[in-house]
């Protein structure tokens, strides 16, 4: 069993991006600029956003954080998005999810200029991804693909099972791994809460991607010997052995499953760290006008 070390990968990729920024600016390019909107004071969102701001500084990006209270009217939030869309210095724009119940996530996603949608959530980017056109790929699926590539994990002809059908992870990663070329050409099955014989299907996977958001749902008897297991889930639970009083666990019961795997991601320290890196890479592409000239 070998760990898929997201922490090591993230460190290497930050160094690569920082070097790319220096070269880009030396050739006359601008400093890449990522703007983030945060609504409210959700603890997990605060943590994610602070990680994004820190990562921007580490690689030489400009970073703008716009904060709003949880009761901001939707029309005011949308007006701010339009304002940032029109700011030519901003290359990437993200709105941290989840949003308060009175704000439509769909309206917010569609309001973001797809050319600055470095989260890859806008229907234009999702549609272009589906038909194989250049687009910004959602950060977590992009991180998964990068991990597969850097560890040279074979995908051609492999049985890949994705558990979870969210628009952010499950659906896009299932499409990406079924596309022609590497990492792709896999035979992909997308499972969800209504899937019959789930255990039987999952246990046949050469590559298993767990992205359903249920702590330790995947047990050892659901995983075949030698499988590659990529755990996207993150659940925060109370812990008496950590300083914070909390710990993070994934969708996979790691201690049970790991001995059966050829490769497995830890939680934390796996895919989650690569999500921020994928945002940086998309912002770099935007600054270079690579996807949308």
Description:
By secondary structure, the protein is an alpha/beta fold. The protein has two domains: 24-122, Rossmann fold; 139-272, Rossmann fold (3-Layer(aba) Sandwich). Helix content is 38%, strand content 17%. The strands form three sheets. Strands 1-11-8-7-5-6 form a six-stranded parallel sheet. Strand 5 (159-163), helix 7 (170-178) and strand 6 form a beta-alpha-beta unit. Helix 6 packs across helix 10. It is globular and about 50 Å long. The model has no long low-confidence stretch (mean pLDDT 95).
Topology:
Elements: E1 2-3, H1 6-26, E2 33-39, H2 43-59, E3 62-68, H3 74-85, E4 92-95, H4 105-111, H5 123-130, H6 139-150, E5 159-163, H7 170-178, E6 187-191, H8 198-202, E7 207-210, E8 227-231, E9 235-238, E10 246-249, H9 254-257, E11 261-264, H10 271-287
Helix pairs in contact: 1-10, 2-10, 6-7, 6-10
Instruction: Please state how the strands of the largest beta sheet are arranged side by side.
Output: 1-11-8-7-5-6
Distance between the termini: 43 Å
Parts with pLDDT < 50 across at least 5 consecutive residues: none
The coarse silhouette is: globular
Query: What top-tier CATH class of the largest domain fits best?
Result: Alpha Beta
* CATH homologous superfamily grouping of the largest domain: NAD(P)-binding Rossmann-like Domain
Mean pLDDT value = 95
CATH topology of the largest domain: Rossmann fold
Run of helices and strands: EHEHEHEHHHEHEHEEEEHEH
How many alpha or pi helices? Answer: 10
Q: Domains counted in the coordinates: how many?
A: 2
């Amino acid at each position: 069993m070998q760990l898929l070390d997201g922490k090591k990968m993230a460190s290497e990729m930050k160094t690569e991006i920082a070097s790319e920024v220096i070269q880009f600016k030396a050739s006359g390019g601008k400093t890449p600029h990522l703007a983030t909107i945060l609504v409210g004071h959700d603890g997990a969102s605060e943590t994610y956003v602070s990680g994004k701001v820190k990562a921007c500084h580490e690689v030489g990006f400009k970073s703008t954080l716009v904060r709003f209270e949880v009761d901001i009217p939707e029309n005011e939030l949308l007006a701010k998005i339009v304002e940032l869309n029109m700011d030519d210095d901003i290359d990437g724009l993200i709105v941290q999810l989840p949003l308060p119940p009175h704000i439509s996530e769909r309206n917010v996603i569609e309001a973001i200029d797809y050319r600055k949608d470095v989260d890859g959530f806008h229907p234009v980017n999702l549609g272009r991804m589906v038909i194989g056109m250049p687009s910004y790929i959602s950060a977590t699926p992009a991180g998964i693909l990068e991990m597969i590539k850097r560890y040279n994990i074979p995908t051609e002809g492999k049985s890949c099972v994705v558990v979870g059908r969210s628009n952010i992870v499950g659906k896009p990663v299932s499409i990406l791994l079924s596309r022609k070329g590497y990492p792709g050409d896999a035979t992909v099955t997308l499972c969800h809460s209504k899937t019959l014989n789930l255990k039987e299907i999952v246990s046949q996977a050469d590559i298993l991607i767990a992205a359903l958001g249920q702590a330790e749902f995947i047990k050892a008897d659901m995983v075949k010997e030698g499988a590659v297991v990529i755990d996207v889930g993150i659940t925060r639970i109370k812990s008496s052995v950590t300083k914070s009083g909390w710990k993070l666990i994934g969708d996979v019961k790691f201690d049970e499953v790991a001995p059966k795997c050829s490769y497995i991601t830890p939680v934390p320290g796996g895919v989650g760290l690569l999500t921020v890196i994928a945002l940086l890479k998309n912002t770099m592409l935007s600054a270079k006008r690579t996807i949308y000239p």
